[in-house]
Amino acid sequence: MKRLTKAQLDIIARQTLDKTAEVGWENAQKNLPYIKKTILDLRSEASKMVADSAIIVSAGPSLHRRHPAPAILAAKFKGPVVAADGALGYCLRNGLIPNYVVTVDPHPARIIRWFGDPALAHREADDYFQRQDLDPTLHKEGEARNQELLDMVNKHGRNIKAIISTSVNPEVSLRCLEAGMELYWWNPLYDDYDAANSYSRRVYQLTKAPCMVTGGNCGTSAWVFAHAVLRSKRTALLGMDLSYHPNTSIQNTQYYKEMVELFGDRAEEAFIRVYNPYIKETWYTDPTYYWYRQSLLDLARQADCETYNCTEGGIVFGKGIKFTILKDFLERFS
Amino acid sequence: MAQYLKGNYKLPKKMKPQVSKMKPTVEQKFEQESLAKLGGSIAFIMKSKTFLWEGDKDEKTD
Asked: For residue A293, what is the DSSP state?
């Protein structure tokens, strides 16, 4: 497929609103008893700390291929480390305890897996984690790996602040509380807050938590958090591929089932190939991940912070993004 | 009174409202409907470079 037009990207944006706003609104009502602090409380705390540089750890395939945790630890990086929920397991397994973990997706059963799911044995069968290259350690021995994650999150939870969206399933909220995390709440900016019946305005009035731009996914929300709340002047992105490695089979992509349902045996044609001149590789992506990519590029252009993409893979490059290697970033800014 | 409000000139030719002749092809329509099924993790919109919306000034709580 060719790169998507603005009109096509708008279709995906509208669909995402339809898919997530109502369930997010319902979850916000259920989460209300747990909402004590918001990310604005953190902003006043953060203003007292030096946070010139931050690192965002996302869960794209490069995270496991490049394995950046040892380099960050060796550099004694002093700035905040912000993990997307999908990258929490990688960080903890490798001794990198993030200061913050961001979670936003309202999915009823999948997101809790990133924190260790106490009810995994009772869930309906779901090959979401086994099929993809998000976290290869979840491919095998699912229950044993889940227990390992439960234990690690319980051990380190007290040292991690959850940047938790009101849209998440309340089971995720309870899991974070059980692990001893402090919860700092926010709402996704779902839609135009000046529009009639705006979800953003309704959820703001319900929870009194600020609405934060998401970019459509958790990793980009983490980047926005570092920029808008921690006021980080420069931010490094890790694992932010928003695409699939050239060697990844399309069967192992996130939207494979939907793509086959929609395009049948022509599903492969619906993927978008993007040549990355920095790594001289052609990665491929699906329409949704391409939307994420364009959204992040738009946001990076508008932000008054510097964004360094140290993923060393993927397709996030363009105006507003400095594509570099992690080693250079750490040498300059640790 | 109405007699003074009547037009006192004739248009050179009747204007027809313009209707786009660009109808989507079957393939484009299929593509649009397909894209509508591939939603992301969470809704996203950006308004006026506002990364964080804290309510209107008169409804802020803190």
From this structure: H
